[in-house]
Design goal:
294 residues; 4-stranded antiparallel sheet; 8-stranded antiparallel sheet; single chain; Phytyl_CoA_dOase-like; alpha+beta; 2-oxoglutarate-dependent dioxygenase activity; Jelly Rolls
Length: 294
């Protein structure tokens, strides 16, 4: 019988450390310089979240999840073996891994993630949803330029944060993240597609914005390192033509208190949250209370 881990709002394994006391958070805190970089440029990168054994464990779970007949396949919010329209450029993209496997479930409560996320959000951390992005060797597809919040306007106000975690070394050659520094100050842009034309966003950019887009920053990361970015930061990633895969897990969170702005379910198969009510309940657990002493 398939276990749905979304009903368990605490770690269920010893894969990650746990916070026993408020003082334990200090070892995981970002420096003032890292926080300042995030606010100035819209991102901070190179933060280590996973050790080698954690990486191998998650890779093992991922190997099961990419098989179409895997146990737990009914629990995904969204599952695309290839979101690209071009069969020669493959982009595996799925939402909901935390419901299906213990490691991806427990990663949500990894203090190396939650403490840093609380600093950048300026408050308590509540889960929004996770993602897997995998580009196979030789023919890995692109993720077109976009802003995350363009896809998230059904939750308001905008107090969101994305954490992109490498399960392989990510380089400019194999399709690492590319950021447009400072674009988190741009207004909200319309959706122009996620896995098709890399340059489709150009249809909605000014000349100045387009010039900035042409000079992005490649975010090269070692496996186990992450990059945090702002929900309006324009980002994407190019194709993988190398002999190595480029696999990543993404954790998307909000500052506690963000509300639903849609009476329909926010994610496929979840319980509806009425407009104006805060995210909470089974599918949106609180990951870290910024004031555990109350």
């Amino acid at each position: 019988m398939t276990t749905d881990y979304s009903s368990i709002h605490e770690p269920i394994s010893d894969l990650f450390s746990r916070l026993a006391a408020a003082a334990d958070r200090d070892q995981y805190r970002l420096t003032d310089a890292q926080v300042a970089h995030y606010h100035e440029f819209g991102f901070v990168a190179g933060v280590r979240l996973l050790n080698d054994s954690q990486i191998e464990h998650l890779r093992g779970e991922l190997a099961e999840l990419v098989q179409p007949d895997h146990d737990g396949r009914s629990l995904w919010y969204e599952y695309n073996s290839n979101e690209s329209a071009d069969p020669d450029l493959v982009l595996f993209h799925a939402l909901g891994a935390w419901r299906t496997r213990p490691g991806f479930h427990d990663m949500l409560w990894n203090p190396a993630f939650t403490v840093a996320a609380s600093q950048l959000l300026g408050g308590s951390v509540r889960f929004w949803h996770d993602q897997l992005f995998c580009k196979p060797a030789h023919h890995g597809g692109v993720v077109a330029w976009h802003q995350d919040y363009s896809y998230w306007t059904r939750t308001q106000p905008m107090a969101h944060l994305t954490c992109w975690i490498g399960l392989d070394d990510a380089t400019a050659d194999n399709g690492c993240l590319q950021y447009v520094p400072g674009s988190h100050r741009w207004p909200l842009l319309p959706i122009t597609g996620l896995a098709g034309d890399m340059q489709a966003i150009g249809e909605v950019l000014s000349e100045d914005q387009m010039a900035q887009l042409m000079n992005p920053t490649a975010i090269e990361l070692k496996a186990g390192e992450c990059a945090f970015h702002h929900p309006l930061l324009v980002h994407g990633s190019f194709a993988n033509r190398t002999e190595r895969p480029r696999r990543a897990a993404v954790l998307n969170v909000v500052r506690d208190g963000v509300c639903s702005s849609d009476d329909e379910p926010l994610l496929a198969g979840t319980d509806p949250i009425p407009t104006g009510q805060p995210l909470e309940g089974r599918f949106f657990p609180l990951l870290l209370d910024s004031d555990p002493q109350g």
